[in-house]
C-alpha cells in the first residue's frame, strides 16, 4: 500500500526536487581508496586542533614509550617518569580548564588515550587514574583550596594520584564498602580513616590517594584526599600486588588505613553517595572506550604485517588465505565502529549531553570487541604468539583487565538492561 507513495517520492527526488549539484556529485563520484588504518574516515570528523593533538601524542608514545614497554612488562616495572613526561606535553588532566591544564575537547583527550593504549593498557591506566579519576574528581568536587593545592602539580606529573574504591570484599558492589571515616580521637579537626582497598593502580607510589569511605555522621560515602607525606608511620600502608599476569607495565597495590588522621579540609565538601566515585569513573570509562581501540588497532597492524611476511603452503603469505583475512576484516570493522561511537559520545560529552548509559555502552562494547578480536588475531601468529617479542600476547592479557575493571562488562550489561527495561537487576 505504501508503494505508490514511495514511487512518487523517488520520482520527485530523481527529477525536480533534487538540486543539480547533488545530481552531478552522485553521477561523477569517484570511488575513494580504502584506508585499512581508518576504514570509515574518522579523521574527517576531527578538528585541526584534535588532529594536531593526536599527532603529538602518537609521536611521543611511539618514540618514547614503545621502546620501554617490552622490558617494563617483563620486569613488572612502572617508570613513574612517564607521568612527568606526559605532564610536560600537557597530556595529563587534558580536559580540565585552568590550573595549567590544556583544556581540550573530550574527543582530543580520547585521541591521547588511544595513542597511549596503542602502546600498552598499563601506561594508559596510569594516565587515566591520574587524569580522570583523581584530577577529574578534585576538579569536579574539590574545594578551591584542594584544587589550588593539587591540580597544577598533578597536571605536571609532579604529584602522583591513586583512586581507592574497590575493597577486598566489595568490587562490583562498592556501595557496601566497609572503610570508615570517624572523628579522630585525639586530633581536633581531623578524621580517622580505617579500612582496606585492593587492586589500586599506582597506590604504592601515589603521593595523594583519593579514598572513598563511609562518613560517620550520615553513613554515606564521601571522598577524602589522603596525603602520604602527612600520614604518621603505621597509619597508611600501600603494598604492591606482584606477579600479575596482565597490566604488568603498570603498578597495582593495596591501601591499608589504620586510624589514619586526615584533615577535615581534605574531604570533598558536598558530594555524597556513589555519585562521587561514579562521576569520576564515567570519565575514565569513556577513556577506556577509546584506549582499547588503540590496543586493538595495534593488534591489527601487527597481525597484518606478520601475515604478509609469514609464508605457508607453496610459499603463499598466510594473509592470502580467506580465514586469516576474515579475522582481520572482523577486527578492523569493530575498531572502526568503536572509534565512531567514541567520537559521537565525546561530542555529546562536550555539549553536556552524554548519558552515563552511553558510556557504559561504549566501554562494554569496545572492551569486549577488543578482547575478543585480539584473542582471535593472536591465532594468526601460530607458535610465535607465545613469544613476548611479537607484542600481541601482552595486549590480550591487558585487555582482559580492561574488560574487568571500572565495571566488568556484565555489570555494564546490567546497567544497560536496567535503563532499557526500567527494572533493577542488581540490588
Ligand atoms: C589491574 C587492576 C587495576 C585496578 N585498578 C583499580 C583502581 O585504581 N581503583 C579501584 O578502586 N579499583 C581498581 N581495580 C578493581 C576493579 O575495578 C575490580 O576488580 C572490578 O570492579 C571487579 O570487582 P571484583 O574484582 O571484586 O570482582 P567481583 O565483583 O567479585 O565480580 C566477579 C564476577 O562476578 C560478576 N558479578 C558480580 N556481581 C554480579 C551481578 N549482580 N550479576 C551478574 N554478575 C555479577 C562480575 O561481572 C565478575 O565477572 C583494578 C583491578 C585490576 C585487576
TrEMBL record:
Q: Where is the Acyl-CoA dehydrogenase/oxidase N-terminal domain?
A: 47-157
- Gene Ontology terms: biological process: fatty acid beta-oxidation using acyl-CoA dehydrogenase; fatty-acyl-CoA biosynthetic process
**GO MF annotation terms:** fatty-acyl-CoA binding; flavin adenine dinucleotide binding; glutaryl-CoA dehydrogenase activity
User: Which cofactors, if any, are listed as required?
Assistant: FAD
Q: Which Pfam families match?
A: Acyl-CoA_dh_1, Acyl-CoA_dh_M, Acyl-CoA_dh_N
User: According to its UniProt record, in which pathway does this protein act?
Assistant: Amino-acid metabolism; tryptophan metabolism; Amino-acid metabolism; lysine degradation
Q: Does the keyword Flavoprotein apply?
A: yes
Reaction(s) this enzyme catalyzes, per UniProt: glutaryl-CoA + oxidized [electron-transfer flavoprotein] + 2 H(+) = (2E)-butenoyl-CoA + reduced [electron-transfer flavoprotein] + CO2
Q: Where are the transmembrane segments?
A: none
Q: Which InterPro entries match?
A: Acyl-CoA_Oxase/DH_mid-dom, Acyl-CoA_Oxase/DH_mid-dom_sf, AcylCo_DH-like_C, AcylCo_DH/oxidase_C, AcylCoA_DH/ox_N, AcylCoA_DH/ox_N_sf, AcylCoA_DH/oxidase_NM_dom_sf, Glutaryl-CoA_DH_mitochondrial
Catalytic EC class: oxidoreductase
> Superkingdom of this entry's organism?
Eukaryota
In its UniProt entry, what is this protein called?
A: glutaryl-CoA dehydrogenase (ETF)
Origin species: Hyaloscypha bicolor E
Source taxonomy: Eukaryota, Fungi, Dikarya, Ascomycota, Pezizomycotina
